[in-house]
Amino acid sequence: MLERLGAERDVWVSTSHPDHGPHQVPLWFLWDGRAVWMCTGAGSATARNVRAEPRVRLALPDAFDVVLVQGEARCHAAREAPEEAAAAFMEKFGWDPRTEEAPFVYLRVVPRTVRAWRGEAEQRGRVVMREGVWVE
């Protein structure tokens, strides 16, 4: 699971707006060992939803090797993002949102709960992180 977080390119991001309901999009992401970093337009539905309701769910795109991450997202204006995260994102994707004319935001999600499994879905015992602590 940690190898996939470090190697994968895309993650499905599920947000919800109190008035408009659920919204789901794929975004590029970076795992820094503690948090997931993504980038999207500052005026996107995803960014607006996170500002209104920060609880999110992330899913790696594989129905057999499932990784689901729950946490709270925080927005960082691209030009104000921590240098270490922005540089790592640029290195991974060859794109630096800080140089774009249109405003972008980085979304940072620290996992609170992580569920992972291979094969059969919806079985008990799939939680590998609870309340921000890895389950052993």
Which class in CATH terms?
Mainly Beta
CATH architecture: Roll
The CATH superfamily title: Electron Transport, Fmn-binding Protein, Chain A
Low-pLDDT runs: none
Strand content: over 45%
In this structure, how is the largest beta sheet organized? 6 strands, antiparallel, barrel
- Counted by DSSP, the helix tally is 3
DSSP summary, beta strand count: 8
Number of domains: 1
Class per helix and strand makeup: alpha+beta
Query: What is the overall silhouette?
Result: globular
Topology:
Elements: H1 2-7, E1 10-17, E2 21-31, E3 36-41, H2 45-52, E4 55-59, E5 65-77, H3 83-93, E6 104-118, E7 127-130, E8 133-134
Antiparallel strand pairs: 1-2, 1-4, 2-3, 3-6, 4-5, 5-6, 6-7, 7-8
Protein name: Pyridoxamine 5'-phosphate oxidase N-terminal domain-containing protein
GO cellular component, one term: cytosol
Keywords: Oxidoreductase
Protein described:
Helix content is 18%, strand content 47%. By secondary structure, it is of the alpha+beta class. The protein has one domain (2-134): Electron Transport, Fmn-binding Protein, Chain A (Pnp Oxidase, Chain A), CATH 2.30.110.10. A six-stranded antiparallel beta barrel has the order 1-2-3-6-5-4. It is globular, with a radius of gyration of 15 Å. The mean pLDDT is 93. This is Pyridoxamine 5'-phosphate oxidase N-terminal domain-containing protein. It comes from Streptomyces termitum. GO terms for molecular function: coenzyme F420 binding; oxidoreductase activity, acting on the CH-CH group of donors.
